[in-house]
Amino acid sequence: MTRFVFITGGVVSSLGKGLASAALGALLQARGYTTRLCKMDPYLNVDPGTMSPFQHGEVFVTDDGAETDLDLGHYERFTGRPAQKSDNITTGRIYLNVLQRERRGDYLGATVQVIPHITDEIKNFIREKDGSADFVLIEVGGTVGDIEGLPFLEAIRQFGNEMGDERSLFIHVTLLPYIPAAGELKTKPTQHSVKELMSVGIRPRILLCRSDRPIEQEELRKIGLFCNIDENKVIPALDVSTIYEVPLTYHREGLDVQVLDCFGIKDPKRPDLKVWNDIVHRVKEPEGAVDIAVVGKYTNLTDSYKSLNEALVHGGIANNVKVNLRFIESTTFENENPADYLHNIHGILVPGGFGERGALGKIKAAQFARERKVPYFGICFGMQLAVVEAARNLLLLEGASSTEFGICKDPVVGLMTEWSKGNEKEERKADGDMGGTMRLGAYPAVLRKGSKAAEIYGTTEISERHRHRYEVNTNYKDRLEQHGLRFSGMSPDGILPEIVEYEDHPWFVGVQFHPELKSKPFDPHPLFVSFIDAAINQSRMV
Ligand code: GLN
């Protein structure tokens, strides 16, 4: 029997509901249950694929090619269960489905309305998860009280009513702000937020109270009293120094026991938290440190590189070192000498990106890494620009560039109009829709025997997730290889370059895909493990 847990948030946004949900998922798993985590987002975009990373942070791509909310990344990193397209839905998608059906005449002349048509569509999204896990955890994006969120709240209210308390549970995440002048944590915003939730007919049975300092028992009792919640189920959620500690602190505060109690599950199996204890120990007590420069464009909002940051942390966990990240805005290198910024750095990473602004700075970072033999990890755009760098400075093709920036003399990176996925042909056009028209999701690649890539993966057949429009142009492959840039990973049909690497360099790897999306703290991605290892070697030299 599947039990449904709905997680809402109140008081302010950015409370870390996604992490809270992921951590609860991990705890239930540690007790031997299967879990599935989903997210419902109230915005009107059909998916976050078209949103700027500045606005919404990273777009998390699933194996089945969906561009989803970054919280799905947390879910996957905490539970190990690969996220999938059907785990994320937005208001835009719900309306698109309903309106397409309306145009087809499927509603047989009915007046199509928010209730019941939109709410039914939301309920279908929830109901189709029935049977897929012991616990389905569904996070509702946004903050209670937002106009956009109302149809979702109405739908989960109805769903909760239909399922009853034995199969559904509402958890509300709130904030207790500390007011220095009064020297107190304030509970009033929480009370109001619960009242708001009750006014739409939802009675949370567990409150998760975020706070930057310990909460007195008396305060918890007071919140319980005013909000009509069992005192034991008002649970403190204090700030922690590493996100991987969240499952452990929630467990200490009794969250998992209380969740099971709500479903009438008494005396459950003890959880096995060894993996989480080990991870936290390694994060908190590293044996050394390396400095990695991330040369990118969205460096102001580190949420834009969420999975990347985490994958680097995972690489550090595997090697027992702390990874210090230095974000460098790539445009800096357009006027300034990269050496001034990079001379004592142990590894350079150029992450994925779009558009011409800042590209030259990334090319210069790749050049610096190649010439000075500093470990370089180019991801997607970071690979493409490393190839442009090689074409310009090794093949001496001045006009080498990517057609992403306009027509150029030597398009070493260009648009492929057709490629195959399994037995199917896929297509894209320069003037096509922006949404969902990239090479998206999992694609296989074959690695050259004896290459660094094959050594790192320990196999010659891999599958990785993609999200890009352009490809490295194989017309330049032979010439680049003659200059030492090996094409060590290709699509199985040999058409699309997937990995490049320099033979005579300690660690210079460019990948067309996004390995960071599949890295987990308990299963760090081999490329990140190897990159951090190379950075440790570099740190012994500088
Ligand atoms: N802008 C490049 C492309 O579309 C790279 C994309 C990326 O780095 N994700 O191919």
Could you describe the 3D structure shown?
- The model has no long low-confidence stretch (mean pLDDT 92).
- The protein has a nine-stranded mixed beta sheet, sandwiched between helices. A seven-stranded parallel beta sheet has the order 5-2-6-1-7-10-11, sandwiched between helices. The protein has a three-stranded mixed beta sheet with strand order 16-17-22, covered by helices on one side.
- The chain is globular.
- Helices cover 36% and strands 24% of the residues.
- The chain is built from 19 helices and 25 strands.
- The N and C termini lie far apart (58 Å).
- Helix 1 (17-30) packs across helix 9 (246-253) and helix 4 packs across helix 5.
- With 542 residues, it is α/β, with parallel strands linked by helices.
- The protein has two domains: 3-279, Rossmann fold, CATH 3.40.50.300; 287-415 and 470-539, Rossmann fold (3-Layer(aba) Sandwich).
- The site of glutamine (GLN) has 11 residues, from helix 16 and strand 21.
Mind sketching the topology for me?
Elements: E1 3-9, H1 17-30, E2 35-41, H2 53-56, E3 60-61, E4 67-68, H3 71-79, E5 88-90, H4 91-104, H5 114-127, E6 135-140, H6 150-163, E7 168-175, E8 178-179, E9 184-185, H7 188-199, E10 206-211, H8 217-227, E11 234-238, H9 246-253, H10 255-262, H11 274-284, E12 288-296, H12 306-319, E13 321-329, H13 332-335, H14 338-342, E14 347-350, H15 359-372, E15 376-379, H16 381-393, E16 400-402, E17 410-415, E18 418-421, E19 424-427, E20 439-447, H17 452-457, E21 461-468, E22 470-472, H18 477-482, E23 485-490, E24 497-502, E25 508-511, H19 526-541
Parallel strand pairs: 1-6, 1-7, 2-5, 2-6, 7-10, 10-11, 12-13, 12-14, 14-15, 15-25, 16-17
Antiparallel strand pairs: 3-4, 8-9, 17-22, 18-19, 20-21, 20-23, 23-24, 24-25
Helix pairs in contact: 1-3, 1-9, 4-5, 5-6, 12-19, 15-16
Residues 352-354, 380-381, 384, 404, 467-470 line the site of glutamine.
